[in-house]
Amino acid sequence: GEDVEQSLFLSVREGDSSVINCTYTDSSSTYLYWYKQEPGAGLQLLTYIFSNMDMKQDQRLTVLLNKKDKHLSLRIADTQTGDSAIYFCAESPNSGGYQKVTFGTGTKLQVIP
Amino acid sequence: NAGVTQTPKFQVLKTGQSMTLQCAQDMNHNSMYWYRQDPGMGLRLIYYSASEGTTDKGEVPNGYNVSRLNKREFSLRLESAAPSQTSVYFCASKLSGAGGLTDTQYFGPGTRLTVL
Hints:
The complex is a heterodimer of chains A (113) and B (116). Chain A has 113 residues and is mainly β.
């Protein structure tokens, strides 16, 4: 079945860049997502990328996709203490209709002031 | 517009007790989902309802039942709670239309359940 893997923990200093990595196994993955979960809250969609794209940039966020290696990364520039959260990588074969999404284990980002 | 709401926020049960977790959305979404979140395991799908009137098993359905009461509400029931069901439970909903950035899953704030 589908599998999405992430490292569990990342610590960075405020102002540095953070890079969170993810690997997935399903070759039919068409949509790849990054969600953010703040303490005590549900998941919020940060950004997503189609499998036919290599890169997507949205303000401080850059998503890179290496489809050959099935590797996805999320770069946060100028990381702030408010970025401290758990970040989930997720993949889905579709976007419309009912959607089966496979989530990674989540990476806890700790930002040190 | 409250989005996805869940009740209760916290619950402690004894082994063997039953309870129902409530979820409601006011976004006129077609699909609804129940996930559990455990440390180091990400989110796992328990049950989902692709549209009003239908429900299907997800990855970890054992020990749970669901009811799609109407388009707005999707409840999750534990008939006889076990310590292995200690977890954080999230409900999500999705428009399930043509797709796109706004046609994605919206999550509730979660219910933290402890079974002793």
